[in-house]
Amino acid sequence: MRALSRAISAPPAVDSVPTSSPMAGLKWRAVGLVDVLAQSAGAVAPTAAAASIPALVVGQASGSSPLLCMVVAWLLAGGVCAAVSQFTRRMRAPGSLYTFTTKGLGPHAGFAAAVALLIGYGFVAMFSLVGAGMYAQNLVSTAGVPAGGWGAAAGVVLFGAVCFVVLRRGIRISARVTLVVELVAVALMLTLLAIVLPRADPAAFLRPITAGVSGPGHLAAGTAVAMTAFVGFESAAALGREARRPFFAIPRTMRWVVVAVGFTYVASMYIQQVGAESFGFPLANDDLAMTQLAAHSGVPRMGRLLELGQATSLVACAIASLTAFSRVVFTLGREGVLPAAAGWTDPLLGTPLVALAVAVPATVAVPLLLLVGLGWTPWHAMSVLIVVSAVGYLTAYTLVCAAVPAFLHRIGELTPRTGILAGGVAAVLAAVVGVYLAVIAHTQSLALWLVLASGALGLGLYAWLRRRRPACLAGMGLFDETTVADLLSAQPIQDAGRV
Amino acid sequence: MTPRRPDLTGRQPNAVLSALSVLEEVARVGPGVTAQQISANLGLPRATAYRLLNLLVQDEYLVRMPDLSGFALGRKVALLAGLSARQESDRAIEAILAKLRARIRGGVHLADLRQGSVRFLDVDEDFPLSDPARIAADPGVSALGRLLLAEQACPAGAAPEPYAVQVGALIPGFGCFAVPIRDPAGRLVAAVALALPAPRLAAPAHLVGLVSDDVPRLAAALEARP
Fold first, then answer.
1. A471 or A60: whose pLDDT is higher?
2. Which of A114, A335, A499, B90 has the fewest Cβ atoms nearer than 10 Å?
3. Is the interface score ipTM higher than 0.90?
4. Which chain A residues have a beta carbon less than 8 Å from that of B69?
5. d(Cα A198, Cα A270) in Å, to the nearest integer?
6. Which chain A positions have a beta carbon within 8 Å of B90's beta carbon?
7. For residues A326-345, average pLDDT
8. DSSP A277
9. CB-based contact, B122 to chain A, within 8 Å
10. Dist CA A98 CA A282 (whole Å)
11. Mean of pLDDT over chain A
């Protein structure tokens, strides 16, 4: 240990380590493990997903075992989680998946991932605001107050304002509330499922497990929809700078969330199928499966409670998704891809103020246009928005998995096992995205048009950047680098002064 | 020291020894050593070496260089040397500053002045410095720098300045106020600075009273440093 003792008594000078991080301004190491966990769990919104996704999967799988689709999606989410962890163990990046993709595949693929990620986070935030508005409207009208057609739109504006206030103040308080709400709601749902089981027809118990596979296309379509239940778990990565012990907290959080929500979804899928068969109601494309289950099991009040749980879960999902969205916009601002103002932070609160001021109004404006301008029902708007978001997420996942082997090779840490796993997951995901696009071309052409329009917007910005700002494009991939304060040569007391 | 090639695996309890030998290897080769070099030099299987390196990075004994492929020793390695007098002194200073910050509605910074320039020891994270480069380069723009200038201009035997004030030199409408911290021999070693809006800087004598209890404590804590 001679060299080590020498280094401790006279720390070596280290060149090429900057004195401040390109991400300076975002609060440094402000949130603990619980808050990071809440960010991931909030963005996944397991209560809302476990209640509504099984019916959507049954609708898409058409004959193939929906339970199998859910299990395959769980495995795929696990693969994405392992791939993303290769990055989150090595770098802290508020730009999360798009910064990782840039580090592996370069700025062009990175830009595509940024657009995909913004579509994913942005549209799921819009979906959540509309959903929360819809449930709030239902609750208000149940209480006897006539809400009218404007109720959901008013809810969107109200919850959008709540999101802005919470996000500007910093995510700590909201994160903890989110976690408690999600835990209570998931516990309620698992209780309901446990109540359903003894009342169900024993003959139906084996049916979900023995269901066959009607074809690879249906399996892929069902899996794609089932994947949408998992999306958001990776959003903890956006807190790279803000989390304490980020290299510990972020990979673990993602793993725990994928394992825990996967279990909840598989259980929920199984029991909803058993229940629907026993009580004789159709499961496909029914947004009220849980309420029906509760009513048939003789506990209708529990269904109402769960609706409240879903509403709060959706507000939490909007907050968590906007947190990640704003960090992506913030990083793009710092890189010069978006106007530099997007990279400004509130000097006292350490939150990306301008990015939030752009992101929140935008996610309120689009739902308003759909609900008020086009006169869509909230459920119709939600079903379109979630599909657009899913395409964005799945594309970003595919790109980040494909980036793993290139990234690890570049830094000289590629092992065959990791390379093959990440490459395999990327290939399967690419196939799933392809099938999903083909499916929505038939069933959700509006969503496909929205995807294409958002993609075209991204492509336009890309073309403009290539012509006018090639340096900004080439400079993508900024992250929260090691600074001199992290080195052995730093004085311990500098910790408090880190800004 | 010649590189040792012990038969190491990633399993307990050898993992601890492996981790220490990885740290030793980073210290021996120097900043920028790559995972492949460490694995080759120590004869560790690559997957084991990468896992150990990621664990050491996770707990900040090691840090990755900005290129992400090189490693350097992290701050936490200092803990391996045991609790030094310096760390105890740092803790005492942190405690004093935390109380001061809770009391004063403004920024509280501590700077070392022994080298004849302003070297910040502790910057208030709620009130970041407006322009650290300019403060370092030009002593005339900060109260801390002005304290230094006054000390250098002070003739031997004359009474030193009890404080220095700067208003509007960095940000219009804001300024700062600095009180000297002296060692037992009366030499200027450090200073505590308060960053405040201009109106609150109008009565500096009152501000001296606000920090008069903390200055001797900070002096004692700084004195304990090696």
1. A471
2. A499
3. no
4. 410-413
5. 14
6. 491-493
7. 93
8. H
9. yes
10. 40
11. 88
